[in-house]
Amino acid sequence: MAVGKNKRISKGKKGGKKKAADPFAKKDWYDIKAPSVFTTRNVGKTLVTRTQGTKIASEGLKHRVFEVSLADLQGGDEDHAYRKIRLRAEDVQGKNVLTNFWGMNFTTDKLRSLVRKWQTLIEAHVDVKTTDNYTLRMFCIGFTKRRPNQVKRTCYAQSSQIRQIRRKMREIMTAQATSCDLKELVQKFIPEMIGKEIEKATSSIYPLQNVFIRKVKILKAPKFDLGKLMEVHGDYSEDVGVKLERPADETMAEAPAEVVGA
Protein backbone atom coordinates (compact mmCIF):
# COMPACT_ATOMS: atom_id res chain seq x y z
CA MET A 1 0.00 0.00 0.00
CA ALA A 2 1.40 3.34 -1.02
CA VAL A 3 1.87 5.69 1.87
CA GLY A 4 0.92 9.27 0.96
CA LYS A 5 0.69 12.54 2.83
CA ASN A 6 -2.33 13.02 5.02
CA LYS A 7 -3.29 16.61 4.24
CA ARG A 8 -5.74 16.72 7.10
CA ILE A 9 -2.98 16.55 9.69
CA SER A 10 -2.00 20.22 10.16
CA LYS A 11 1.64 21.08 10.60
CA GLY A 12 2.82 23.08 13.57
CA LYS A 13 3.54 26.73 12.72
CA LYS A 14 7.17 27.81 12.67
CA GLY A 15 8.32 29.95 15.57
CA GLY A 16 5.18 29.44 17.65
CA LYS A 17 3.10 32.32 19.01
CA LYS A 18 4.56 35.84 18.77
CA LYS A 19 4.94 37.73 22.02
CA ALA A 20 2.62 40.74 22.13
CA ALA A 21 4.73 43.91 22.06
CA ASP A 22 3.92 46.72 24.48
CA PRO A 23 2.75 49.69 22.33
CA PHE A 24 3.98 52.17 24.97
CA ALA A 25 7.54 50.83 24.92
CA LYS A 26 8.39 52.89 21.82
CA LYS A 27 6.62 56.07 22.96
CA ASP A 28 7.66 59.13 24.96
CA TRP A 29 5.69 61.56 27.13
CA TYR A 30 5.94 65.30 26.46
CA ASP A 31 4.70 68.20 28.65
CA ILE A 32 2.22 70.64 27.07
CA LYS A 33 2.98 74.29 27.88
CA ALA A 34 0.25 76.96 27.54
CA PRO A 35 0.99 80.61 26.60
CA SER A 36 1.77 83.11 29.39
CA VAL A 37 -1.68 84.79 29.19
CA PHE A 38 -3.07 81.85 31.19
CA THR A 39 -2.44 81.32 34.92
CA THR A 40 -1.70 77.57 34.70
CA ARG A 41 1.12 76.89 32.25
CA ASN A 42 1.36 73.08 32.58
CA VAL A 43 -1.69 71.83 30.70
CA GLY A 44 -0.95 68.11 30.65
CA LYS A 45 1.03 65.46 28.80
CA THR A 46 0.92 63.97 25.31
CA LEU A 47 2.32 60.77 23.78
CA VAL A 48 4.40 60.44 20.64
CA THR A 49 6.36 57.60 19.01
CA ARG A 50 10.10 57.87 19.66
CA THR A 51 12.41 59.08 16.86
CA GLN A 52 13.16 56.19 14.47
CA GLY A 53 15.25 56.74 11.35
CA THR A 54 13.69 59.51 9.27
CA LYS A 55 10.57 59.69 11.49
CA ILE A 56 11.36 62.47 13.97
CA ALA A 57 9.23 62.63 17.14
CA SER A 58 9.07 66.44 17.28
CA GLU A 59 7.70 66.58 13.72
CA GLY A 60 4.87 64.25 14.73
CA LEU A 61 3.97 66.59 17.60
CA LYS A 62 3.87 69.83 15.61
CA HIS A 63 0.40 71.19 14.73
CA ARG A 64 -1.28 68.79 17.16
CA VAL A 65 -4.37 70.53 18.65
CA PHE A 66 -5.34 70.17 22.33
CA GLU A 67 -8.70 71.20 23.78
CA VAL A 68 -8.57 72.46 27.38
CA SER A 69 -11.19 73.95 29.69
CA LEU A 70 -10.46 77.60 30.56
CA ALA A 71 -11.14 76.72 34.22
CA ASP A 72 -8.06 74.44 34.20
CA LEU A 73 -5.96 77.17 32.55
CA GLN A 74 -7.08 79.77 35.12
CA GLY A 75 -6.06 77.82 38.22
CA GLY A 76 -9.28 75.82 38.65
CA ASP A 77 -11.63 78.85 38.56
CA GLU A 78 -15.05 77.21 37.97
CA ASP A 79 -16.57 80.46 36.64
CA HIS A 80 -14.69 79.84 33.37
CA ALA A 81 -15.57 76.13 33.07
CA TYR A 82 -17.99 76.65 30.16
CA ARG A 83 -15.25 77.87 27.79
CA LYS A 84 -13.10 75.43 25.81
CA ILE A 85 -9.76 76.74 24.58
CA ARG A 86 -7.96 75.09 21.65
CA LEU A 87 -4.15 75.15 21.77
CA ARG A 88 -1.95 74.14 18.82
CA ALA A 89 1.57 72.73 19.23
CA GLU A 90 3.96 75.09 17.44
CA ASP A 91 7.44 74.01 18.61
CA VAL A 92 9.17 71.33 20.70
CA GLN A 93 12.01 72.22 23.07
CA GLY A 94 13.46 69.32 25.02
CA LYS A 95 10.49 67.50 26.55
CA ASN A 96 8.24 70.58 26.36
CA VAL A 97 5.65 71.29 23.66
CA LEU A 98 5.11 75.05 23.23
CA THR A 99 1.54 75.85 22.17
CA ASN A 100 -0.35 78.88 20.92
CA PHE A 101 -4.05 79.89 20.93
CA TRP A 102 -5.96 78.13 18.13
CA GLY A 103 -9.62 78.89 18.81
CA MET A 104 -12.32 78.95 21.44
CA ASN A 105 -15.79 77.48 21.91
CA PHE A 106 -18.60 77.14 24.45
CA THR A 107 -19.68 73.88 26.06
CA THR A 108 -23.01 72.60 24.72
CA ASP A 109 -24.70 72.66 28.15
CA LYS A 110 -23.88 76.37 28.66
CA LEU A 111 -25.18 77.29 25.20
CA ARG A 112 -28.42 75.34 25.79
CA SER A 113 -28.94 76.96 29.21
CA LEU A 114 -28.87 80.47 27.70
CA VAL A 115 -31.71 79.92 25.21
CA ARG A 116 -35.08 80.60 26.86
CA LYS A 117 -38.66 81.54 25.98
CA TRP A 118 -40.07 85.08 25.77
CA GLN A 119 -36.83 86.68 24.52
CA THR A 120 -35.06 87.28 21.19
CA LEU A 121 -31.76 85.58 20.36
CA ILE A 122 -29.40 87.77 18.31
CA GLU A 123 -26.28 86.35 16.63
CA ALA A 124 -23.55 87.96 14.53
CA HIS A 125 -20.22 86.86 13.07
CA VAL A 126 -17.35 88.72 11.46
CA ASP A 127 -13.94 87.96 9.87
CA VAL A 128 -11.14 90.08 11.35
CA LYS A 129 -7.37 90.40 10.98
CA THR A 130 -5.15 91.10 14.01
CA THR A 131 -2.03 93.29 13.91
CA ASP A 132 0.18 90.15 13.80
CA ASN A 133 -1.64 88.86 10.64
CA TYR A 134 -3.92 86.21 12.17
CA THR A 135 -7.28 85.98 10.36
CA LEU A 136 -10.08 85.02 12.76
CA ARG A 137 -13.81 84.47 12.53
CA MET A 138 -15.60 85.64 15.67
CA PHE A 139 -19.16 84.62 16.58
CA CYS A 140 -21.20 86.70 19.02
CA ILE A 141 -24.44 85.80 20.80
CA GLY A 142 -26.82 87.97 22.85
CA PHE A 143 -30.35 87.92 24.27
CA THR A 144 -32.89 90.66 24.87
CA LYS A 145 -34.07 91.34 28.43
CA ARG A 146 -37.01 93.12 30.01
CA ARG A 147 -36.71 96.84 30.59
CA PRO A 148 -36.81 98.13 34.20
CA ASN A 149 -40.41 98.32 35.56
CA GLN A 150 -41.72 96.37 32.54
CA VAL A 151 -44.99 94.57 33.22
CA LYS A 152 -45.23 92.64 29.94
CA ARG A 153 -43.82 89.11 30.17
CA THR A 154 -42.18 89.04 26.74
CA CYS A 155 -39.24 91.10 25.49
CA TYR A 156 -39.13 90.59 21.73
CA ALA A 157 -37.07 93.02 19.63
CA GLN A 158 -38.28 94.31 16.26
CA SER A 159 -36.49 93.28 13.04
CA SER A 160 -35.08 96.80 12.59
CA GLN A 161 -33.70 96.75 16.17
CA ILE A 162 -32.15 93.30 15.59
CA ARG A 163 -30.40 94.61 12.45
CA GLN A 164 -29.08 97.64 14.37
CA ILE A 165 -27.80 95.46 17.23
CA ARG A 166 -26.16 93.03 14.79
CA ARG A 167 -24.42 95.94 13.03
CA LYS A 168 -23.19 97.25 16.41
CA MET A 169 -21.88 93.79 17.35
CA ARG A 170 -19.86 93.55 14.11
CA GLU A 171 -18.46 97.08 14.53
CA ILE A 172 -17.27 96.46 18.12
CA MET A 173 -15.79 93.02 17.31
CA THR A 174 -13.88 94.46 14.32
CA ALA A 175 -12.63 97.48 16.28
CA GLN A 176 -11.43 95.35 19.22
CA ALA A 177 -9.70 92.67 17.11
CA THR A 178 -7.99 94.84 14.48
CA SER A 179 -6.37 97.13 17.08
CA CYS A 180 -4.33 94.43 18.87
CA ASP A 181 -2.35 91.24 18.35
CA LEU A 182 -3.53 87.68 19.11
CA LYS A 183 -2.06 87.62 22.65
CA GLU A 184 -3.87 90.84 23.63
CA LEU A 185 -7.09 89.61 22.02
CA VAL A 186 -7.01 86.39 24.10
CA GLN A 187 -6.62 88.58 27.21
CA LYS A 188 -9.87 90.32 26.19
CA PHE A 189 -11.70 86.99 25.74
CA ILE A 190 -10.96 85.71 29.28
CA PRO A 191 -12.90 88.41 31.24
CA GLU A 192 -15.48 88.82 28.38
CA MET A 193 -14.55 92.48 27.80
CA ILE A 194 -16.00 92.58 24.26
CA GLY A 195 -19.37 91.17 25.40
CA LYS A 196 -19.67 93.79 28.15
CA GLU A 197 -18.86 96.58 25.69
CA ILE A 198 -21.54 95.35 23.25
CA GLU A 199 -24.05 95.23 26.13
CA LYS A 200 -23.26 98.85 27.03
CA ALA A 201 -23.33 100.11 23.41
CA THR A 202 -26.66 98.47 22.50
CA SER A 203 -28.58 99.44 25.67
CA SER A 204 -30.04 102.50 23.86
CA ILE A 205 -31.44 100.27 21.06
CA TYR A 206 -32.72 97.41 23.25
CA PRO A 207 -31.34 96.15 26.62
CA LEU A 208 -29.35 92.93 26.23
CA GLN A 209 -28.17 90.21 28.61
CA ASN A 210 -25.80 87.22 28.36
CA VAL A 211 -23.73 88.74 25.54
CA PHE A 212 -20.74 86.49 24.79
CA ILE A 213 -18.14 85.83 22.13
CA ARG A 214 -19.27 82.22 21.92
CA LYS A 215 -16.82 80.95 19.31
CA VAL A 216 -13.51 81.94 17.71
CA LYS A 217 -12.04 80.17 14.67
CA ILE A 218 -8.57 80.81 13.28
CA LEU A 219 -8.87 80.83 9.49
CA LYS A 220 -5.32 81.81 8.55
CA ALA A 221 -2.11 82.02 10.56
CA PRO A 222 1.12 83.81 9.57
CA LYS A 223 4.38 81.96 8.85
CA PHE A 224 5.88 80.37 11.98
CA ASP A 225 8.24 82.69 13.86
CA LEU A 226 10.11 81.28 16.88
CA GLY A 227 10.82 84.75 18.28
CA LYS A 228 7.10 85.57 18.34
CA LEU A 229 6.30 82.23 20.00
CA MET A 230 8.89 82.85 22.74
CA GLU A 231 7.29 86.29 23.26
CA VAL A 232 3.89 84.62 23.74
CA HIS A 233 5.41 82.22 26.28
CA GLY A 234 7.05 85.13 28.12
CA ASP A 235 9.31 83.94 30.94
CA TYR A 236 9.54 80.37 29.58
CA SER A 237 12.91 78.68 30.02
CA GLU A 238 13.86 75.04 29.73
CA ASP A 239 14.27 73.17 33.04
CA VAL A 240 17.98 72.91 33.70
CA GLY A 241 19.52 71.08 36.65
CA VAL A 242 20.90 73.20 39.49
CA LYS A 243 24.60 72.82 40.32
CA LEU A 244 25.07 71.51 43.85
CA GLU A 245 27.88 72.67 46.11
CA ARG A 246 29.34 69.59 47.77
CA PRO A 247 31.13 69.73 51.16
CA ALA A 248 34.95 69.50 51.02
CA ASP A 249 34.99 66.34 53.26
CA GLU A 250 32.93 64.34 50.72
CA THR A 251 35.19 65.41 47.85
CA MET A 252 38.28 64.25 49.77
CA ALA A 253 36.68 60.91 50.68
CA GLU A 254 35.76 60.19 47.05
CA ALA A 255 39.25 60.94 45.68
CA PRO A 256 40.91 57.60 44.70
CA ALA A 257 43.78 56.47 46.95
CA GLU A 258 47.21 56.58 45.30
CA VAL A 259 48.56 53.11 44.52
CA VAL A 260 52.13 52.63 45.72
CA GLY A 261 54.55 51.32 43.15
CA ALA A 262 52.24 51.93 40.22
Automatic annotation (TrEMBL):
One of the record's GO molecular function terms: structural constituent of ribosome
Record's keyword terms, sorted: Cytoplasm, Ribonucleoprotein, Ribosomal protein
Positions with biased composition (Basic residues): 1-18
Region (Disordered) residue spans: 1-20
BP GO annotations: translation
Classification via InterPro entries: Ribosomal_eS1, Ribosomal_eS1_CS, Ribosomal_eS1_euk
Chief location category: cytoplasm
Compartment annotation: Cytoplasm
GO cellular component labels: cytosolic small ribosomal subunit
Subunit (UniProt): Component of the small ribosomal subunit. Mature ribosomes consist of a small (40S) and a large (60S) subunit. The 40S subunit contains about 33 different proteins and 1 molecule of RNA (18S). The 60S subunit contains about 49 different proteins and 3 molecules of RNA (25S, 5.8S and 5S).
HAMAP family recorded: Ribosomal_eS1_euk
Family stated for the protein in its record: Belongs to the eukaryotic ribosomal protein eS1 family.
Protein name: Small ribosomal subunit protein eS1
Protein species of origin: Gossypium stocksii
Upper lineage: Eukaryota, Viridiplantae, Streptophyta, Embryophyta, Tracheophyta
